[in-house]
Amino acid sequence: MRLTIVVPALREAAGIAATLAALAPLRERGAEVIVVDGGSDDGTAEIAALAADRVLVAPRGRARQMNAGAAAARGDVLLFLHADTQLPPAADAHVRAALAAGGRWGRFDVRIEGRARVLRVVAVLMNWRSRLTGIATGDQALFVERALFDQLGGFADQPLMEDIELSRRLRAHGAPACLRERVVTSGRRWEARGPWRTIFLMWRLRWRYWRGESPQALAEAYR
């Protein structure tokens, strides 16, 4: 069983090298790493080319970029990793164990790295909510059998909430494997706008999404 890690990126020159360096041990153990750039103008693709198996260019949009990476993947299992997130050292072994135990998809617990203490609470709530609802977010490094991902047609072509939409369809094929090992993701998104402001914004957007509003309208509100 071979693992392919798909990393969508856009203007990540400041951090992509560190993200890929953390994946080097997994590559040595056979994992494939594909970075999909969405049209960066800061040298992201050139930096990524030094430490990834492949670097692709795709139309901007996380869902589109992840689908492009999945289409080019050689692995039997796909793991989607944000460019500002680092996996635990034995992530490949944890994923294989989860699938060997009968799971078909899953995600990791998350820890948010940042100065604000409230980010610790946010991470705890994210992990708890995911276990309760069976919904995985992109920050949690969602992984899935390649065959199942292809069967479902991949991520929906939408600008926001693509992770939630896919999770809903995946749940019909079984509950997610909720791994307690943690990925570490940057708190820059929360700190740039203010932690509390970002928290309330995301709660409102998720509520509106559950009520049926279009991802396009929510993306405009997010921007």
Structural features, described:
With 223 residues, this protein is an alpha/beta fold. It has helices at residues 16-22, 24-28, 44-48, 62-72, 91-100, 118-133, 146-152, 162-171, 188-193, 195-210, 215-222; strands at residues 3-9, 32-37, 54-57, 77-80, 85-86, 105-113, 143-145, 177-186. The chain has one domain: Spore Coat Polysaccharide Biosynthesis Protein SpsA, Chain A (Alpha-Beta Complex), CATH 3.90.550.10. It contains eleven helices and eight strands. Strand 2 (32-37), helix 3 and strand 3 (54-57) form a beta-alpha-beta unit. Helix 10 runs antiparallel to helix 11 (215-222). The mean pLDDT is 93.
Task: Give me some keywords for this one.
20% strand, 8 strands, 11 helices, 223 residues, Spore Coat Polysaccharide Biosynthesis Protein SpsA, Chain A, alpha/beta, 8-stranded mixed beta sheet
Strand content: 15-25%
What is the tally of helical segments?
A: 11
Domains, number: 1
In the CATH hierarchy, what is the architecture at level 2?
Alpha-Beta Complex
CATH superfamily: Spore Coat Polysaccharide Biosynthesis Protein SpsA, Chain A
Helix content: 40-55%
Main β sheet profile: 8 strands, mixed
Give a brief rundown of this model.
By secondary structure, the chain is α/β, with parallel strands linked by helices.
Topology (SSEs and partners):
Blueprint: E1 3-9, H1 16-22, H2 24-28, E2 32-37, H3 44-48, E3 54-57, H4 62-72, E4 77-80, E5 85-86, H5 91-100, E6 105-113, H6 118-133, E7 143-145, H7 146-152, H8 162-171, E8 177-186, H9 188-193, H10 195-210, H11 215-222
Parallel strand pairs: 1-2, 1-4, 2-3, 6-8
Antiparallel strand pairs: 4-7, 5-8, 6-7
Helix pairs in contact: 10-11
